[in-house]
Amino acid sequence: MRRTERYPVSGSNSLWQIYRTVSFWKVARNFAVIQVGRYTPWLSVKNWLYRTFLGMEVGKQTAFALMVVPDVMFPERISVGDNSVIGFNTTLLAHEYLIEEYRLGDVVIGNNVMIGANTTVLPGVSIGDGAIVSAATLVNQDVPPGAFAGGNPMKIIYTAEEMAERRTASLKA
């Protein structure tokens, strides 16, 4: 279950009311920083940009690949632990604007997490330490620590225990 806060709106859909929920200038600044970050080849510079200007929590030795898109409206609600890899063209969302409401939720990515390319992480989701998320996955629920998950919608393919068994079996072979 995703943990999001729900805010009802009336009249036009919530996206038409976006600047009642977040400052235009904040979105413009965040957009510019994210565009620079998407193309920056230096991981330490990218992490500094995200920490300094977006208010994201970014762990040591974390790698955001080329073209990653953090949430442009609420990036401060994203945290990524140490030594994690966020794959090419992945989107990390902390908001959803719907017809009659908008929702906000923290995205918490643990330590030593691998997220494959072209993945979308929805608001209110946690990905546990040591988890692996395959490419092109829609992360619409929590991923337990050490698990291997993938698909659209996402399913747990192997638990941490099953992953450990597979590693042990491959070492014996």
Automatic annotation (TrEMBL):
Alphabetically sorted, this entry's keywords are: Transferase
Gene Ontology MF term list: transferase activity
Q: Which domain of life is it from?
A: Bacteria
User: One Pfam family of this protein, by short name?
Assistant: Hexapep
Task: Name the CDD domains on file.
Answer: LbH_MAT_like (cd04647)
Q: Cross-referenced InterPro entries, in alphabetical order?
A: Hexapep (IPR001451), Trans_hexapeptide_repeat (IPR050179), Trimer_LpxA-like_sf (IPR011004)
Q: What is this protein called?
A: Acetyltransferase
Q: Which organism is it from?
A: Planococcus lenghuensis
| Organismal lineage | Bacteria, Bacillati, Bacillota, Bacilli, Bacillales
